[in-house]
Amino acid sequence: MQSGTYGLSYDVSTRATEDDLPHGWNSRRAETYKQLALCLERGHFARLQKSDWICEDTDAITTYYTMLMLRTIPPPGKFQSTVKGLKMHKIESPCYDISQEIVLGGRYAAALEGPTPSTLVPENVPSAEPLGVLLPRYTRRSEAALNPGNWRV
């Protein structure tokens, strides 16, 4: 097997994790993610973001085995009954990950393109509080959404 950098990503059902029985585990999502993180860190994976993990200088078999080990997070059977997806990725070059370049404040998103929630705007992005509020498409009306102090333009 070819050695190199491998990534893995998972998708866990929030409803199956948080809904009350008999439809779910009635547990906090954060605890599930904590248990997954502990398991992946034992396999020498590092978190890139949320459910994307990476391990350098490994191989496909080791990565596959690490994926199988996720079945062991407590309580028994939880992962198997809540997982929606689990994938392995061979990363040929770090240049294929443009996460830092495309996020707000990165190379390809150096400025706001429209009204943006204030706490989502990094300090390195020029912004100001708007004089009024015209809610962006698909944003639900709420007291907080109508407060100009919660937006940056």
CA(first)-CA(last) distance: 51 Å
State Rg.
20 Å
Shape: flat
Question: What summary fits the major beta sheet?
Answer: 4 strands, antiparallel
The arrangement of helices and strands along the chain is: EHHEEHHEHEE
Can you characterise this structure?
- By secondary structure, the protein is an alpha+beta fold.
- 25% of the residues lie in helices and 23% in strands.
- It is built from 5 helices and 6 strands, in the order βααββααβαββ.
- The strands form 2 sheets. Strands 2-3-1-4 form a 4-stranded antiparallel sheet.
- The mean pLDDT is 92.
Q: Which features would summarize this protein structure in a list?
A:
153 residues, flat, alpha+beta, two-stranded antiparallel sheet, 4-stranded antiparallel beta sheet
Itemize the secondary structure elements and their pairings.
Elements: E1 3-12, H1 14-18, H2 29-42, E2 46-49, E3 52-59, H3 60-69, H4 78-82, E4 83-91, H5 99-102, E5 116-117, E6 151-152
Antiparallel strand pairs: 1-3, 1-4, 2-3, 5-6
Summary, kept brief:
The protein has helices at 14-18, 29-42, 60-69, 78-82, 99-102, and strands at residues 3-12, 46-49, 52-59, 83-91, 116-117, 151-152. By secondary structure, it is an alpha+beta fold.
